[in-house]
Design a protein that fits this description.
Layout: H1 3-10, E1 16-17, H2 23-33, E2 37-42, E3 45-51, H3 52-61, H4 71-74, E4 82-83, H5 88-98, E5 102-107, E6 110-116, H6 117-140
Parallel strand pairs: 1-2, 4-5
Antiparallel strand pairs: 2-3, 5-6
Length: about 150
């Protein structure tokens, strides 16, 4: 299974902000849309990610206040990325190694979407459920010993 399979099911809604915006409105957008990450874009290119991890780190560093902090100060400026052709097993390995919960999907310099660890886990469970269903159907149709085989 490839990342493109997840994006096809998930859809292409993306929420972005620029690095030179204040952090407070970016957090308001995250809360309003009930999302865990924002893609940070500048001049049409991915320049970072803002997730609740970076927000918590910024709050701790600033004594619990956001104040006049800009997105650029809080964002991860070297986010882990993948392509639409990246295999799901590789994505899982990458996300687990870096403790990443969100990953931008790129095609050259074009942002194609963002997948979350939840998206990956759901795709794996759905795939396993489908395989399990097919195996059960196959076993149910298994011919009994000594019974003549049917088919063409």
């Amino acid at each position: 299974m490839k990342v493109s399979d997840i994006l096809r099911v998930k859809g292409a809604t993306l929420y972005t902000v620029t690095p030179d915006e204040p952090l407070a409105p970016a957090l308001a957008l995250m809360a309003e849309r009930d999302i865990g990450s924002l893609v940070i874009m500048a001049h049409g290119e991915l320049v970072g990610m803002l997730t609740f991890r970076e927000v918590i780190q910024t709050l701790v560093k600033n004594g619990g206040s956001i104040g006049a902090t800009m997105v650029r100060t809080a964002m991860d400026d070297a986010p882990l990325t993948c392509t639409t052709e990246t295999d799901l097993d590789e994505v899982r390995r990458m996300m687990l190694e870096r403790h990443a919960r969100y990953m931008p999907v790129m095609d050259s310099n074009m942002l194609m979407g963002v997948i979350s660890f939840y998206d990956v886990a759901k795709a794996v469970v759905d795939s396993q459920n489908f395989e399990n269903k097919m195996l059960k159907a196959y076993i149910r149709d298994w011919p009994e010993e000594g019974a003549p085989a049917t088919g063409a």
